[in-house]
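Journal club prep — side note

Before the paper discussion, L.F. wants everyone to see what a predicted structure for a comparable chain looks like in C-alpha cell form. Sequence:
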Amino acid sequence: MLGKIRSLGAPIGAQGLYSIAGMVVTLVGTLAMAPDTWGRVAIILSAFFIVVAFVRGAGSIPILVFLSGDATAAYWARRPALILTALVAALTGTIPALVGFSVGLPLPGILLGLATITYSLYDITRTIDLATGDFTRVVRSDAVMFGLLLLGLLLCLTDLPADSVVPASMVLAYGVGTAVSLLGQPRSESLRIRGYWRHYGRDIPFLALDALLMATTVNGFVFLAGIMGSPELAGAFRTAISLFIGPLQLAQTASSPFLVRMLRGSARAYEQDPGADLRLRTLRQPALLVAAFVLVGACYGAIALVAGGAISRLLTQEVWIAAADLALACALLIGALGASSLLSTFLRYRHSSHLLFWVRVMTLLASMAIFAALFGPAGAPLTVAIAAAAAPWIVVPGLFALAFWRPVSPRLGAALA
C-alpha cells in the first residue's frame, strides 16, 4: 500500500506547477480585471479549454490510454502525434479568436487562438513524459513554463491591459515549455503519420469528440451561466472551477496516468486469462474508484465552501465571494467528471470508441438538459443546477457498464500489446 501511495505521489508532484499555472491565470484575471471584463475573458477561456480538449484526442489521449508505461512505443508515436496535434490545433485555434470578436475582446481572442497551438503541443510533450514515467523531466519543463508565465503576468502591474497580457503570457510560456520538454527527450525511431493513423485512426476521431464533450460540460455551463445569468456570474463560475477547485483537479489529473496504467494492466491480465474476466469481478475496480472520486469531491467541496467563503469575505473580493458559494457544487461536478473519465477508460478496453462516443453524447445531453431546465425555467439556484447536472456523468456510463458488460475486446487488446 505504501508503495502505491509513493508511486501516486510522484505524478501528483509532477502535476503541481502545471495545474497551479491555470489557477494563477484565474487569480490574476480576477484581481487585475474588472468583473465584467473578467467575465468576458472567462467566456473566451471556456472556448479555449473546449478546443484544446478536442485537440488532445489527436495525440495526448491515444498515447496516455494505449501506450502508458511503454516508453519505446510512446517515443515511437511522438513525431506523428505532434504533427497531427499541431495541424488540428492550428485549425481549431480560430474558434477562441471568433469568440473573442463576439464578446468585444478581439485581441485576447486572437492570442488565446495562438495559445491553443502552444498549449496543445506542450500538453502532448509532457504527456509522453508522464506515460514513460519520467516525472523529473516533467517537473523541469513545468518549472520553465511556470516561471515564464509568472514573469509575463507581472506585466499586469504596469499600464498594459491585463486582458491581453494574460493570454500573451500563456502563448510564450507554453511555447518555450514545449521546446524544453522536447529537447530533454531522447531520440528514437519515429513512426510516420500514415502508420500512426493505421494503429489509432479508428479511435482518434471518437477520442477527440469524447474529450470535446467532456470539456463542453464545465465550459458549457460557464457559457450558459453567462447567457442565462450575467458575465459576472460566468466569471465567478470560472473562478470557482479554476481557483477554488483547482487543487482537486490537480489531484485528479495527476493521478490519471497512474490509474489509467492500473486499468490498462487489469485489461491485459484479463486478456491473458479470459476465464477470470467476469462481470462482477471486473466491475469492482472501477466502482471503487468512482466511489472514491465522489467522496473526495464532496469532502473537498465542503472544506472549500467554508474556508473559501471566510477568506473571500475577509478580502471583500466580490468575484471570490460569489465563486466560494459555488465551491461545493463545483467540487461534486469535478468529482463526477473524474469518475466518468475512469469509467470511460475501463469501457474503452471492452467496447468500440464509436459506441462509447454515443454514450457520452447521451450523458452530455442529459447533463446539459438538467442544468438548463433547473437554472432557467425552474429558477433553481446555480449551485443546485450544477450539482444536479453532475449526476448523469456517473449514472449513464455506470448503467451502461453494468447492462452491457463484455470481456476485453480482442481489437483493443491488440492495441495494448
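L.F.'s comment for the group: Confidence is low (pLDDT under 50) at residues 412-417. Keep this in mind when we get to the figures.
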